[in-house]
C-alpha cells in the first residue's frame, strides 16, 4: 500500500511540475481600432526582438474597445515580449528611413528606446498578468 501511495504522489507531483502556466497580457495605450496587435515571445536574447523565427510563440490578436488581450500558456522560465500595432494589416512593423517605428510598439517591462532583451525579460514562475503600454513616435 505504501508503494501505491508513493507512486501516486510521484506521478501527481510530476504532472503538476509539467503543467504550463497562464500568462495574461493586456496591451493598452492603443490609439485606434484599425488593424491588430502582433506579438512575439522570446525565451532567449538570440533573435530578440526582430527575428520572429527565434520566438517561442507569436501571433496576432484583435483590438476591442482600445485594448488587446493575449492569453498564453508557457512553461516556467524567463521571457521577453514585443508587441506592435499593425495598423495597416501588412504583418510588418512600418518604420521610417532611420528605422524608427511608425506604428505603436511596446514590450514587457514597458521600457522605451532601443529594444533590449535584458530590459524586457521577466520570470514566469506562477500564473501572471502583465500590462504592456504601447508608445507611438
Task: Provide an overview of this structure.
The strands form two sheets. Strands 2, 3, 5, 6 and 7 form a five-stranded antiparallel sheet that branches. A three-stranded mixed sheet has the order 4-1-8, with no helix packed on it. The termini are far apart. Helices cover 15% and strands 36% of the residues. The protein contains two helices and eight strands; from the N terminus they run αββββββαββ. The longest helix has 16 residues, at 2-17. Mean pLDDT is 88; it is low at 4-12. The protein has helices at 2-17, 117-120, and strands spanning 21-28, 36-42, 57-62, 68-74, 77-86, 105-107, 122-124, 128-133. It has 137 residues and is α+β, with helices and mostly antiparallel strands.
Features:
single chain; 137 residues; alpha+beta; five-stranded antiparallel sheet; three-stranded mixed sheet; 2 helices; globular
Brief characterization of the structure:
This protein has 137 residues and is of the alpha+beta class. It has helices at residues 2-17, 117-120, and strands spanning 21-28, 36-42, 57-62, 68-74, 77-86, 105-107, 122-124, 128-133.
Amino acid at each position: 500500500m505504501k508503494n501505491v501511495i508513493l507512486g501516486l504522489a510521484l506521478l501527481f507531483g510530476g504532472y503538476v511540475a509539467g503543467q504550463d502556466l497562464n500568462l495574461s497580457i493586456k496591451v493598452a495605450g492603443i490609439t485606434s481600432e484599425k488593424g491588430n496587435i502582433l506579438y512575439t515571445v522570446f525565451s532567449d536574447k538570440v533573435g530578440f526582438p526582430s527575428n520572429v523565427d527565434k520566438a517561442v510563440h507569436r501571433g496576432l490578436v484583435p483590438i476591442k474597445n482600445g485594448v488587446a488581450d493575449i492569453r498564453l500558456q508557457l512553461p516556467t522560465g524567463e521571457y521577453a515580449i514585443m508587441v506592435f500595432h499593425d495598423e495597416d494589416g501588412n504583418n510588418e512593423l512600418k518604420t521610417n528611413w532611420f528605422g524608427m517605428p511608425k506604428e505603436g510598439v511596446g514590450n514587457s517591462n514597458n521600457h522605451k528606446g532601443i529594444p533590449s532583451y535584458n530590459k524586457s525579460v521577466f520570470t514566469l514562475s506562477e500564473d501572471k498578468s502583465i500590462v504592456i503600454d504601447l508608445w507611438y513616435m
